[in-house]
Structure formats: C-alpha cells, structure tokens
C-alpha cells in the first residue's frame, strides 16, 4: 500500500489558505487546517472540501500566541494517530496572516509587535514545534509577499516581517537538508480576497490600478496561488529548495 500523507495549512478557512487546502485535497492529501476565531466558517470549509479520498479537519489556533503551540502540536499528533491514522505529516504551509496598513514612521510598538508575532515569530516557532512530527523528505512552504521586492504604500511593517521570513527560509532549507526536508517561500502579488479588509477584491479603483501594472492584465485570485502551491509541493518539484518564488502574474516588473 502506498504511504498516504497529510498537510498542515494555517489559515485554511478562507482566501489563499482555503484554496491551498482545496488543491491538496484534490491531490489525495489529508489536510489539517487552522482558523483563528470564526468556528462557523471553519466548519463550513471542512464540510465543503472533504471528500471520500481526503479530508479537511480544522483546529483553532492563534498564530500570535506561541504559548499554545505545545498543546496545538499534541492536537495534530492526536489527529495523525487517530482519524488520520496511516497519514504521515509531510507538508507544512505557513499561510495565516493579517496586515496593518501604516507608514513606517506612524507604526505603534503594538502594531509592530502584532506584525512580528503573526508573520515571523509565530510561524517560526510553530514550525519548530511541529518538526518532530514532519516526515523526513517533507516540504515546508512559507507564504510571504511580493511586496518584499517593490514598494507599496503603507506596507512597510508587514513587508519587513515577510522579508524576515524569506531570510529564515534559507536557513531552514540549509539546516533541515540532512532530513531531506525542502523549504521554500512563495510570494503572492495582489489577490482578490478578503485579506486586508477585501481592499483588492472590493475596491474597483485599487483593483484596476493593480491590474494595470500586471502584464497579464488582472489581479490574482486565491486559486492562482492554491494551484501553484500544490504544484510546488508535488514530488516532481522535490529539487526546488531554498527559493523565493513569486506568483504574481508579473506584477510590477
């Protein structure tokens, strides 16, 4: 019997994370997803995406609170030993996040702490907590941002933390190489989702201006990222390691 695998996807209840879970499940991979506060939305995603061949199970997680990670890891282990028995944790996708729009010189210490905890410290320490569970030969993928390459107004603190994640991804790739675990960063461009209050999706002017600076003539959709992530996690991409990969349609070339 072929070994069955599972993935952990943070922020799988909506947007990019929901799409990533959808594509992984379509590939026959069980998914443990996380949500922050919206239990009803998480349950709806679980019902919508689960199939006869692969399932989504949602766990509550505050990515900003590292003190909960030991208990969360125990929950993941329980799922793997119980309902997902026979599935090894092969994939970790650090996707959950938010954005606080502010100029660098207007950011408060509390806002900086928020962006640091959610986009760098939390994912960093959660990955460390999960390392004993991940299968040798596994894949870790950190969702960052194309805004680490070019300027966007009021993105400084957010982009800085994503830049730190891209740097640590290189170190992770090097230091986990002995276990044949690859680590890459995927940097989406503008996505029409509810991220950032749905600004790109719902503000026609913002959407149009971003489409103008994208060679393919539109902003991205969550499925553009979900499909790309599933492809990068596939066995055919096992030699891609330590890379920052933009999935932007060519935004701001």
Task: Describe this protein's structure.
Belongs to the short-chain dehydrogenases/reductases (SDR) family. Pfam families: adh_short_C2. InterPro entries: NAD(P)-bd_dom_sf, SDR, SDR_fam. This is SDR family oxidoreductase. α1 packs across α8 and α4 runs parallel beside α5. Strands 3-2-1-4-5-6-7 form a 7-stranded parallel β-sheet, with helices on both faces. The protein contains 8 helices and 7 strands. The longest helix is centred in the middle third of the chain and has 22 residues. β4, α4 and β5 form a beta-alpha-beta unit. It has 253 residues and is an alpha/beta fold. It has a single domain, classed as NAD(P)-binding Rossmann-like Domain (Rossmann fold).
Count every helix, treating DSSP H or I runs of 4 or more residues as helices.
8
CATH topology: Rossmann fold
CATH homologous superfamily grouping:
NAD(P)-binding Rossmann-like Domain
Give the helix level as a range of percent.
40-55%
Sequence stretches where pLDDT stays below 50 over 5 or more residues = none
Dominant shape: globular
The fraction of residues assigned to DSSP E strands is 15-25%
The CATH architecture assignment turns out to be 3-Layer(aba) Sandwich
Structural class: alpha/beta
| Broad CATH class | Alpha Beta
Main sheet properties:
7 strands, parallel
Family: Belongs to the short-chain dehydrogenases/reductases (SDR) family.
Organism: Komagataeibacter xylinus
Protein name: SDR family oxidoreductase
């Amino acid at each position: 019997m072929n070994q069955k695998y599972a993935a952990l996807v943070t922020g799988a209840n909506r947007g990019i994370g929901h799409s990533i879970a959808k594509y992984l499940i379509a590939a026959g991979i069980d998914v443990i997803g996380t949500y922050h506060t919206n239990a009803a939305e998480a349950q709806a995603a679980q019902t919508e995406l689960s199939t006869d061949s692969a399932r989504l199970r949602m766990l509550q997680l505050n990515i900003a609170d590292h003190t909960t990670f030991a208990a969360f890891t125990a929950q993941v282990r329980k799922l793997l030993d119980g309902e997902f028995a026979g599935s090894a944790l092969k994939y970790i996708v650090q996707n959950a996040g938010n954005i606080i729009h502010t100029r660098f010189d207007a950011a408060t210490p509390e806002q900086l702490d928020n962006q640091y905890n959610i986009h760098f410290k939390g994912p960093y320490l959660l990955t460390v907590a999960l390392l004993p569970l991940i299968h040798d030969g596994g894949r870790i993928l950190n969702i960052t941002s194309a805004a680490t390459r070019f300027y966007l107004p009021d993105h400084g603190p957010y982009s800085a933390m994503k830049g730190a994640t891209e740097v640590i991804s290189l170190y992770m790739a090097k230091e986990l190489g002995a276990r044949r675990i690859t680590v890459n960063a995927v940097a989406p461009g503008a996505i029409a989702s509810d991220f950032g209050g749905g600004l790109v999706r719902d503000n026609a002017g913002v959407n149009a201006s971003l489409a103008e600076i994208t060679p393919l003539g539109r902003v991205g959709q969550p499925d553009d990222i979900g499909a790309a992530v599933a492809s990068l996690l596939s066995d055919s991409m096992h030699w891609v390691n330590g890379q920052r990969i933009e999935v932007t349609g060519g935004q701001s070339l």
